[in-house]
Each structure stands twice: as structure tokens, then as C-alpha cells.
Amino acid sequence: MIPRILVFAGSTRTGAFSGRTADAATKELAEQGAEVTRISLADYPLPIMDQDLEKEKGIPESALKLGGLIAAHDGVLIASPEYNASIPPLLKNTVDWVSRISKIDGRPVRPWAGKVVGLCSSSDGNFAGIRGLYHLRAVLMNCRAEIVTPQCSVARAQDAFDEEGNFKDERTRGMMEGVCRAVIEHARLLSNRVEA
Predict the structure, then answer these.
(1) What is residue 190's predicted lDDT score, i.e. its pLDDT?
(2) Where in the numbering of this chain does the NADPH-dependent FMN reductase-like domain appear (predicted)?
């Protein structure tokens, strides 16, 4: 079984370190044998999560499209920046809207429930975005996602990549290999469990 993994960054800023980290994850997942879909959250614009808006207009089309993509993949890898030691608002808003989905095209769907998720972070400081991942992990676990234990946090991200977008540091490369391996292995295990 070739696992299908969806990859996106928690920032849409041009040149964002999280985007470069997501690109590195995409490359590593493919090298380890996964079928990878790399998307940008810029293609799924969403209003601020508002239950009055949801009641009036329903779940936005972009959230339903993204939720359908998440549901169609065996795993998800998210590369997130850190804002004020927590989750960036774009990513939190996206997770929240997708968590509201209970049906797509009349079929019962909970995109995050039971989904294998790997987490990466990046920042220009020494903390490497780790504090934000602590909060992101808690939020996704509340959505019943299955978060793999290994993670990759890229410190001093402005100097972390070479001209080809690869990590210069062997330790960071090892962390990325580890989180990608864990996502692939858990996705395979989960798929085998479902088929059984």
C-alpha cells in the first residue's frame, strides 16, 4: 500500500520558513515512497470562524473542499510557524472550520477524526517553533486526530536551507526523516486496520 499524504504550511507568506519546511517534507515523504499532495492554504480562503455565520450560510465551500482532501488522504503533514508562542491564526482558523464538518455531499465525514498527522515547525529563533506545536498538537488531538510522536522543528530557519531547499544540518535532516517515516508507517497501519 502506497500511503497518500497531504502536506501544507500554516503560513501563506511569500518565502515563509514553514513553506520551505513543507517543501522539504514533501521531498522526504516522496523519497520514502509516499504519494504526496502539496497544497497552499492560500487556495482555500476562509472567513474567521463564526457560528452565527455558519448557521446563516453553512460551512464555507473552501473548508468543505479542504476537508474532502484531508479525508481522501491517509495522512497529513503540517509545517507551522509560531506566533506569540502559539498557533498562527490562519492555521487555527483552518483547523476549526474543518472540525465543523460532519457531512460532505450527504456522506458522514469527520476529516480529522482518526487521521494520522505529523507536525513540523520553523522559526528564526532557537526555540524552532516548538511552543506552537505544543498547542497545535493539543488542538488536533481534541479533533481526534492521531498525532505521531516524532516531530521536526527547524531552528534559525533563515540559515537552515541550502540552495536546493535541503537542510544543511544533519540533525534537522534526521528529525525530518523520522517524522515522515512515522507518518507513513502509521498511515499504513491504520489502512491495514480499516481493511481488516
Answers:
(1) 82
(2) 3-157
